[in-house]
Design a protein that fits this description.
The complex is a heterodimer.
Chain A: H1 2-34, E1 36-38, E2 44-47, H2 51-58, H3 62-91, H4 98-110, H5 113-123, H6 130-137, H7 154-179, H8 183-191, H9 196-225, H10 228-233, H11 245-255, H12 261-286, H13 288-292
Antiparallel strand pairs in A: 1-2
Helix pairs in contact in A: 1-12, 2-12, 3-7, 3-9, 4-7, 7-9, 8-9, 9-12, 11-12
Chain B: H1 2-29, H2 51-57, H3 60-93, H4 99-111, H5 118-127, H6 134-159, H7 162-186, H8 188-204, H9 207-212, H10 221-224, H11 236-265
Classes of the chains: A mainly alpha, B mainly alpha.
Chain lengths: 293, 271
C-alpha cells in the first residue's frame, strides 16, 4: 500500500509541481503582497496588516468600478445566453451550408482576443471606422459617433465585442446539450398537439437546463476575468471611469502613476475570492464527483 | 423545401455577420498607407497592396515576436503533454487515496485564468529574478493549460478497454511498453486535441506576456504587434497583416479539434 502511494506521486508529480509552483504559489504571493507595503520599484518594505484593504475601500473610483463590473458581466453573459440559444437552435437543424456557418463561428473563438479588440478599435473609429460609415449610409445615424470616446457609449461598445467573442463557446456548449436530447421526446410532444414554441418551452428548455447552467457559470467566470477587450477599447480614456475590477487592478499595479502593488494585490484577492465563489457554484452545478470520478 | 431555404438563408446571414469584422481586417491589411485615412472610408482598396504582408514578415521586430511566440507555445505545449499524460493515465486506470482531491485541484485551476493572479505571478517571478525570461512565460502557460489536457486525455484513456492493454503487456511489452505502443496510439485524437489546444492557448495568451516580457526582443506576437499602432504611428495595415498571419493557422487548427473542445472545456459535465 505504501508503495502504491509513492507510485501515484510519481505519475501525478509533474502536474502537481506545475500547479503548486505556478498556480498555488502565486496565490500565496498575492495574499502576502496584499498585506505588505512596496516601493514604486516593487521592493518589499514590510507588512502593514489590513491597511491595503482599508485603503481599497477608500478609493474614489471603487463604486464606479464595481458598478462597471456588474454591468459588464450581466450584459455580456445575459445577451450571449439569449442569442446563443437561438444560434444553437438554428445550427441544430440540418440545412445546406451548415458546416460553413459552424466554421465561421470558430473564427472569433480561435482568434487572439487582443487582435480582435484592436480590430474593433479600428471599426469603431470616429473618422475612418466602418461602423459609423455603415450606420450613416443606412440613415440610422445622422452624425458619426465617437463610440470609444463618449462616456455614454464606451461600455456598450465594449459589451458588444464581449458578446461577439463569447457567442461561439456558448453556442457550442448549448449545441452539445441539444444533441443529447432524444428525438422521441419531440415526437411525443407533437403527438400531444404541442406547437413548436410550446414544445421548445416545455420540452427543450427543461432538458437543456444542465447545459444552460454550465454555460452561464463558465461565462460569468470568463467574462469577469476578461482583460484584453476593456484594456484595448478603453485605452484612450483617462482615469478609471470605464474599468472593470480586473483592468482597475492591472492599472493600479502596472500602469497608472500609482504603481501600488499592495493595493492592487488587495483587489486581486477580492477578485480571486469572487471567482472561487463562482467555481463552487460550478462544481455544485455539474455535480462533478459523480460525473468525473 | 422552403424550410431548408429559410434555414440556409439565416445561416448565410449569420456567417456573414460573424466574418464581416475579419473581412474588414483582411481588406485593411491589403490597403496602402494613403488609403487608410480616407473620408468616407472605403471597404475595398483602390490599389491592392499584398506587399504589406511581405513588409511584415521581413520586419526584424515581427520576426522576433514570431519566434518568441513559437518557442513559448511549443515549449509550454511539450511540458503540458509530458505532465498531463501520466497524470491522466494514472487517474483513468487507478483508484487511490487523493485521486478525488487531485481531480478537484485540476478542475479549480482550469477555472482560474492567470488574469486574476497576475499580480501574484509578477511578484513570484520578480522575486525569482525571472522577469523577461522564456522560462517564466513557458511555465505559466503550461500550468494554466494543463487541466484541459488532463481532462481530454483522461477521457480517451478511460475509453480504451483494459483488456487491450493487458494483452499487450502479456505479449512482452511490459506496462510502460503497453502504454507507449498501445494506449498512446489509440488515444491519438485526444493527444492531438490536447496539443492543439495548449499551443493555441499559449499562442493567444496576452496578459502574462504583457506583464512579464517588457524587453522588445522578448515580446510574443500578441504584445509585439500592438506597437504597429501607438499614439505616434498608426500602421493599421501592418497591424492587421500581422494579425491575419497569426490568426489563419490557428483557426484551421481549432476547426480540426472543434468536436472535442466542448467536452474538455466543460470538464465532463456535458456529454
Amino acid at each position: 500500500m505504501r508503495g502504491r502511494r509513492w507510485e501515484a506521486l510519481l505519475w501525478l508529480g509533474p502536474s502537481l509541481a506545475l500547479i503548486a509552483g505556478v498556480v498555488f504559489y502565486p496565490a500565496v504571493a498575492l495574499v502576502r503582497a496584499s498585506l505588505g507595503r512596496y516601493s514604486i520599484t516593487g521592493v518589499f518594505q514590510g507588512f502593514v496588516g489590513t491597511e491595503n484593504y482599508t485603503r481599497l475601500l477608500e478609493q474614489p473610483a471603487l463604486p464606479t468600478v464595481l458598478a462597471n463590473t456588474a454591468v459588464w458581466v450581466a450584459a455580456v453573459v445575459g445577451v450571449t445566453m439569449v442569442v446563443s440559444l437561438g444560434l444553437a437552435q438554428l445550427l441544430n437543424q440540418a440545412f445546406p451550408g451548415r458546416w460553413l456557418v459552424r466554421a465561421a463561428l470558430i473564427v472569433p473563438w480561435a482568434a487572439s482576443l487582443i487582435m480582435t479588440s484592436k480590430l474593433f478599435v479600428w471599426i469603431y473609429d470616429y473618422y475612418f471606422g466602418a461602423l459609423n460609415h455603415l450606420l450613416t449610409s443606412l440613415g440610422l445615424l445622422a452624425q458619426p459617433v465617437d463610440w470609444l470616446g463618449e462616456d455614454s457609449t464606451v461600455m456598450a461598445a465594449m459589451i458588444a465585442v464581449g458578446i461577439f467573442v463569447s457567442l461561439p463557446f456558448t453556442t457550442y456548449v448549448l449545441l452539445a446539450g441539444l444533441a443529447g436530447i432524444p428525438g422521441e421526446v419531440y415526437e411525443a410532444a407533437r403527438v400531444d398537439g404541442a406547437s413548436t414554441w410550446t414544445a421548445y418551452r416545455l420540452v427543450t428548455l427543461p432538458l437543456l437546463k444542465p447545459a444552460l447552467l454550465v454555460a452561464v457559470v463558465l461565462n460569468i467566470i470568463y467574462v469577469f476575468n476578461s482583460f484584453p477587450i476593456v484594456w484595448t477599447l478603453n485605452d484612450r480614456n483617462p482615469g478609471f471611469g470605464h474599468d472593470t475590477m480586473i483592468t482597475y487592478m492591472y492599472k493600479i499595479a502596472f500602469k497608472s502613476a500609482l504603481r501600488d502593488v499592495g493595493l492592487a494585490a488587495a483587489l486581486g484577492v477580492v477578485n480571486v475570492a469572487l471567482i472561487l465563489v463562482a467555481v463552487v457554484v460550478y462544481l455544485r452545478t455539474v455535480r462533478w464527483e459523480e460525473a468525473g470520478a | 423545401m422552403t424550410r431548408r431555404v429559410v434555414l440556409s438563408a439565416a445561416g448565410f446571414v449569420l456567417a456573414c455577420g460573424v466574418l464581416a469584422p475579419y473581412v474588414v481586417m483582411l481588406l485593411t491589411a491589403l490597403k496602402p498607407d494613403a488609403e487608410l485615412r480616407t473620408t468616407p472610408p472605403r471597404l475595398l482598396p483602390l490599389h491592392w497592396r499584398p506587399g504589406n504582408f511581405l513588409e511584415v514578415v521581413t520586419d526584424p521586430g515581427f520576426q522576433d515576436w514570431l519566434s518568441v511566440s513559437l518557442v513559448v507555445a511549443a515549449a509550454s505545449t511539450a511540458i503540458v503533454v509530458l505532465a498531463a499524460a501520466p497524470a491522466a493515465y494514472y487517474t483513468a486506470r487507478h483508484r487511490f487515496r487523493g485521486r478525488t482531491a487531485f481531480l478537484f485541484v485540476v478542475l479549480v485551476t482550469q477555472m482560474f485564468s492567470p488574469t486574476a493572479l497576475v499580480v501574484g505571478l509578477y511578484r513570484e517571478f520578480f522575486e525569482l529574478d525571472l522577469v523577461n525570461t522564456y522560462a517564466a512565460l513557458i511555465l505559466t502557460n503550461a500550468a494554466f493549460n494543463l487541466a484541459f489536457a488532463i481532462w481530454i486525455l483522461r477521457a480517451f484513456f478511460a475509453s480504451i478497454p483494459r483488456e487491450v492493454e493487458e494483452a499487450a503487456a502479456v505479449d512482452g511489452c511490459g506496462r510502460l511498453g503497453a502504454l507507449v505502443r498501445v494506449v498512446l496510439p489509440l488515444s491519438l485524437p485526444g493527444l492531438v486535441t490536447a496539443v492543439i489546444f495548449a499551443f493555441i492557448a499559449a499562442w493567444n495568451e496576452y496578459i502574462v506576456a504583457l506583464t512579464l516580457m517588457t524587453a522588445p526582443e522578448r515580446k510574443p506576437l500578441t504584445v509585439g504587434i500592438t506597437s504597429y499602432v501607438t499614439a505616434y504611428v498608426q500602421h493599421w495595415n501592418h497591424l492587421f497583416a500581422a494579425s491575419v498571419i497569426a490568426i489563419v493557422p490557428v483557426v484551421v487548427l481549432f476547426a480540426l479539434i472543434e468536436r472535442h473542445l466542448v467536452g474538455g472545456l466543460t470538464a465532463g459535465s456535458v456529454k
